[in-house]
Amino acid sequence: MHELSLLAGVVGAVEEVAGDKPVSSVGLRVGARSGVMVDALEAAWPVAIVGTRCHAASLEIEAIPATVWCPTCQNEQVIDEFFALVCPVCETPTADLRQGREFTISWVDVGTND
Ligand SMILES: [Zn+2]
User: Fold this and answer.
1) Which of 10, 18, 39, 56 is the most buried (most CB within 10 A)?
2) Ligand 1 centre distance from Cα of residue 93 (Å)
3) Residue 61: band (very low, low, confident or very high) from pLDDT cuts 50, 70, 90
4) CA 65, 58, 28 angle in degrees (round to 5)?
5) Which residues share a beta bridge with 70?
6) What distance in angstroms lies between residue 83's CA and the mean position of ligand 1's atoms?
7) Which domain holds residue 35?
8) Alpha carbon of 71 to ligand 1 centroid (Å)
9) 104 C-alpha vs ligand 1 centroid, how far in Å?
10) Among 38-52, 72-86, 87-101, the least confident range
């Protein structure tokens, strides 16, 4: 499971943003085709934050569905994460993935030091 090492990177980046302030929550955008399991992220978070300025932070995950551009439908279609790259409506093969590979920090909430 590589989620823990991914989260170590997230925590490091968040700490840079937060400076010396305690972090209260962190938002992540996770695409269906990012190769990252949301359940595994949530399970690894309490481990990843031990001894960091994120130690009291909650993790909020926004799951991004995978979509492809279908040249036949002339439309963006949501594909199931386990399906091959074909349009779910007309079954035209398409590798034009428009979203779903995201693994990014969307926001960081910091508290005060008082
Ligand atoms: Zn189509």
Assistant:
1) 10
2) 8
3) very high
4) 30
5) 75
6) 14
7) 3-15+24-110
8) 7
9) 29
10) 72-86
